[in-house]
Write a structure and sequence with these properties.
The protein is mainly α. It folds into two domains: 99 residues, no CATH class; 132 residues, no CATH class. It contains twelve helices and no strands. Helix 9 crosses helix 10. The longest helix has 33 residues.
């Protein structure tokens, strides 16, 4: 896979080791999601073949083991299904699914509605659709509102400042976004429509007074790039590294 990646992109040979390590780290980050998509594909293949399967349950391994996704040999796919079809794995999968689909008592769920796309891809899709850079507020809402609410926002029926009618996927995403708007109002006054988004304000609000190495809504990405669209020298992520991260996401 890395060899194929190298045919699509070029870089200074002196950066080879760093880029290889970054590539592996990104694969590790996306591995669980990739495996889930393979199980979903196999479930759809089984359904098309006339099997009695529930399309919402991709863990029906005794059935889908007969329907390997494209490019995976059937003997390897059967071994993968056998590894998944264990009490320990199924219990872990059930627990993870529950955590992703509901916030805990503190509203600390990391659930979002952005699908499998990374933020960079959402940003690029916005550029193509609207012919301009999205603000951080628009990007965050695109990945944390309910589907119905996003449609109303797209049609202009509600605004990005309408906290009364914005419907979020979790309590935490609502609290953090609302807190960010309040903080921006405190700094800039009542009208913040033309104020650029502030990475430091977002970081302070989402932390809620607690020390944390990950920024809600941003994860391990460059905070300044995600919020303002520009990299920060203090973040340790130079512009070339940002472009490299984008290329990894797209690949």
């Amino acid at each position: 896979m890395y060899d194929r990646f190298r045919t699509c992109w070029r870089w200074d040979p002196s950066n080879e080791q760093a880029i290889y390590e970054g590539f592996l780290n990104m694969l590790k980050k996306r591995f669980r999601e990739i495996m889930m998509q393979l199980r979903i594909k196999a479930t759809k293949l089984a359904y098309k073949a006339g099997e009695n399967v529930n399309l919402r349950n991709s863990n029906q391994f005794r059935i889908i083991r007969k329907y390997p996704p494209e490019s995976i040999p059937i003997n390897i796919w059967r071994d993968m299904c056998s590894a998944w079809n264990t009490k320990a794995w199924l219990s872990k999968s059930k627990c993870g699914s529950s955590n992703r689909n509901s916030a805990d008592i503190n509203g600390r769920s990391s659930r979002h509605t952005g699908g499998s796309m990374g933020f960079d891809e959402h940003r690029e899709n916005w550029r193509r659709t609207y012919g301009r850079e999205p603000t951080w507020k628009e990007l965050f809402l695109q990945t944390h509102l309910t589907k119905e609410c996003k449609e109303k926002l797209r049609k202009g029926e509600i605004s990005i400042y309408d906290m009364k009618n914005l419907k979020f996927c979790t309590n935490r995403s609502k609290e953090v976004y609302g807190g960010y708007l309040e903080a921006m109002h405190d700094i800039h006054g009542s009208d913040i429509t033309d104020c650029p988004d502030d990475p430091e304000v977002w970081a302070r609000v989402q932390a809620g007074g607690h020390r944390t190495s990950r920024v809600f809504g941003v994860g391990s990405s460059d905070l300044h790039y995600m919020v303002s669209g520009t990299s920060s020298s203090s973040s340790g992520c130079a512009p070339s590294s940002v472009e490299y991260q984008r290329s990894i996401e797209e690949a």
